[in-house]
């Protein structure tokens, strides 16, 4: 598994509807990519967003990063949407699982 963590803060006053449309399109495209496993996004009380995507391998994640429409959205992110972001990526993260017996 290859894990990508995208932490970001949006610029003040962005067009939320336009951003949402583009984000929805990117999620739709990502789901269609070979090697895509999962995507989830969380927003903290202070406005920071943490988006997690899991890929079968590094090659799949990097191929997604090079997809043409995704590259255009990345450029939009830098020019219009994000005040800041940090991307973390790692192969074979150490994973621990737990499920309570009464929840199984």
Descriptive report:
The protein has one domain (2-91): Alpha-Beta Plaits (2-Layer Sandwich). It is α+β, with helices and mostly antiparallel strands and 104 residues long. It is 38% helix and 33% strand. A four-stranded antiparallel sheet has the order 2-3-1-4. The mean pLDDT is 95. Helix 1 (16-31) packs antiparallel against helix 3 (68-81). The chain contains three helices and four strands. It has helices spanning 16-31, 58-66, 68-81, and strands at 2-10, 36-43, 49-55, 82-91. Strand 2 (36-43) and strand 3 (49-55) form a beta hairpin.
Structural descriptors:
Alpha-Beta Plaits, globular, 38% helix, 3 helices, alpha+beta, 4 strands, 104 residues, four-stranded antiparallel sheet
Look at the structure and give the mean pLDDT: 95
Our count of helices gives 3
CATH architectural arrangement? 2-Layer Sandwich
The percent range for strand residues is 25-35%
> Could you state the order of secondary-structure elements as H and E?
EHEEHHE
Count of distinct structural domains: 1
State Rg: 15 Å
CATH hierarchy class name: Alpha Beta
Summarize the amount of helix as a percent range: 25-40%
